[in-house]
Amino acid sequence: MLNNNLSKEHQIFLKRVKRRKNLIVLTQIIILLVFFIQWELTARYKLVDPFLVSQPSRMFKFLVKLYGEGMLFRHIFVTCYETIVGFLLGTVIGTLISIILWWSDFICKVLDPYLVVLNALPKIALGPILIFWIGNGQPAIIMMALMISLIVTIISVLSGFKEVDDDKIKLIKTLGGNKFQILKYVVLPASIPTMISALKINVGLSWVGVIVGEFLVAKEGLGFLIVFGGQVAQLDMVMVSILILSIAAYLMYEAVTALERRYIKYRS
Amino acid sequence: MALLKIENLSMRYHTLEGETPALNNLNFEVNSGEFVSIVGPSGCGKSTLLSLIAGLIHPSEGKILLNNKEIQNPCNECSKIGYMLQKDHLFEWRTIYKNITLGLEIQGKLSSENIQRVDYMIKKYGLENFKNYYPQQLSGGMRQRVALIRTLAVNPEILLLDEPFSALDYQTRLAVSDEIYKIIKDEGKTAVMVTHDISEAIAIADRVIILTKRPAEIKDILNINLSIENRTPLKSREAPEFRHYFNAIWKELDVHVE
Ligand SMILES: Nc1ncnc2c1ncn2[C@@H]1O[C@H](COP(=O)(O)OP(=O)(O)OP(=O)(O)O)[C@@H](O)[C@H]1O
Ligand SMILES: [Mg+2]
Prior knowledge:
The complex is a heterodimer of chains A (268) and B (258). Chain A is built from twelve helices and no strands.
C-alpha cells in the first residue's frame, strides 16, 4: 500500500490511533510523577515516617553519594553481569540437554520423574549447600541463577521440540534425511519461537536467582545493597537499589522482546 | 516395463492395544511413465502403502521392487522416490527457493548442474518472481506447486502423492490438479496417487486401483480409456466414458453411510 495517497477517512483513523497511543504514554508518565511527588510531600510533612518509607530527595542524595564514591556502576555492573551469565548459561545448557532428551527417547523417559521432582523443588533451598560446595563468591550466585532457570528451560524447550509437526519430520525422511538433519532442518528452526519465550521467562528467573544468591553471599551488587541497607536500617539504600533493579530488569526484558520482534519481522 | 513391483505385500501395525492389519497380500505393478491412482475407503491403509513404497516403514511380509531392486527401510532408494504429502509442509522460515532446494541440500547434491536444472524448472513453472518470497506470502495452489517442484528437484524416478489436493478448496483443486498433472507429464515422471475422490482418480490416471476396507486388498484394477484428445484432468471429466467409470468404481467401493 502506498502511504502518500491516503484517503481523508484513513488519515483521520490513523490520527486517532496515534492520539490514543500518546494519551496512554502521557497517563503513564503522570502516574509515575504523581506517585513520586506524593511520596516526597507526604514524607516531608511527616504524614508517613521517612525512616520507614524513605523519601525521593533522600534517595537522590544517596544516589549521588554512591556515584561520588565510584560505586554506583560497580554494583549495577556486578548484578547485571551475574544475571546475564546465569541466564545465558541456563538457556544454552537447557537447550543442549533438551536436544539430548529429544534425541534419545529412552533417556527422556528414564529422566522424566527426576525432572518433575527437580522442577517442583524450590531451588533456593539448595543455597546453603551451594555455598559449601563452591564457596561464597560470585560462582555460587551464578549457580543459583542457573539452577532456577535450567529445569524450566529444559521442560519448555523439550515440549517445543515434541510439538513439531510429525509430517514435517516425515518430509525430511522422504528426502533421505537422518536424525541429525531432522534436528537441523526442522526441529530447531521450528522451535525458535518456543526458545524465545523460554528466554523471556529465563530473564525473570535469573534475576530472582541472582538476588537470592546475593542475599546469601555477596559483598557487592544490588542484592547486597538491599540486604546491607536493611541490616543498617538505611531505607534510602534499599529503596534506591530496588528502583535501579526494576529499571535494569525492565531493560533486559525489553532487549529480549526486541530480539523477538526482529525475529518475527524476518519471518513475515 | 514395470518400474515398480509390489509382491505379496502385507503390513500389520503393533501397538499396546493390539495388532492392526493394514494391508493384506497386495500385488501390482506400475509401468514407467504411467499415472496410477489408488482409491479406497478412508482408513483402509492407503497412506501405509505409500510409506512402505517410500521405505519409511518396514513391511510385515512381501517385497517392493524399484527397477528390480528391493526397497529397504531405512530407505536406500530415497533419492529415486519423491513423496508429496497431503499438506505442502513448506518451511515458513525458508524462502521459496530454499524450500525447493531442501532435498538437494539434505542429499548433498547442490551441484551446479542440479541447481541449473532447478532454476530452469522454477522459470518454466512460473515461480521465478516468487523465489525470494516466504511461503506464507503465497496462495494455497501456488504453495502446492512449490511443493511439487521441491519433490522434483531431487529428480526422482517415481512420485508418490498422498491426497495432494485435499487441503485445497474445490475450484483451486481442479486448477491445481490440472497444473500438477501437466508438470508431471512434462517431466516424464511415473506417479502413484492416493485419493478418495473418485472423479479425481479417474480424471488424472491411466489406471485406477481399487482397495477394499481395512485390511486393504486389491478389489479391482481399472484401465481408464477416454475418447478424448490431449488429455488433461479437467477435459477428462467431459469424456463420455467418465460417468461409466465413476459408477463402476462407486459400486466397487460399496459405500454405505452408517
Ligand atoms: N503408526 C501406526 N501405528 C498403529 N496403527 C496405525 C499407524 N498408522 C496407521 N495405523 C492404522 O492403520 C490403518 C490404515 O492407516 P492409513 O493411514 O494407512 O489409512 P488411509 O487409507 O491412508 O486413511 P485415510 O483415508 O484416513 O488417509 C488405520 O486403521 C490406522 O489407524
Ligand atoms: Mg491417508
